[in-house]
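Q: I have 125 residues here and want to know how they pack in 3D. Can you give me a structure?
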Amino acid sequence: MPETGVPALDTVLVWGGAIALLVGAGTAAWRVVGAGVRLGRRVDQFMDDWYGEEGRPGVPDRPGVMERMSGIEDRLRRFEHELYPNSGGSLRDAVDLANERLARLCPDDPEEGCPPPRPPAPAGQ
């Protein structure tokens, strides 16, 4: 290691380098620990969201992901009932009935008595 020739200055430079190295290593360690703590908090929040939380005074229960998915599936089954023809009470049955009535009133062949379409109204009226 090169020396300056002044023993007091050499000692100050060695101690200054050592202190700078320790401060740098301490700062790096602090940042790593801080990042680990932040990651731990996020994982903890995720786990609370995934499994849900019990209610406590002033805070209602929060269901977990699987419980919420079950509720969504139940609601989707109710909507699925409306998508297929059944006893006449579904939305699909109503649409099919409306299409059937419209086909009787206005067949696909325009020569069979379907009135011609009205021209569009002029813009601004």
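Q: Anything worth noting?
A: The mean pLDDT is 85. The radius of gyration is 38 Å.
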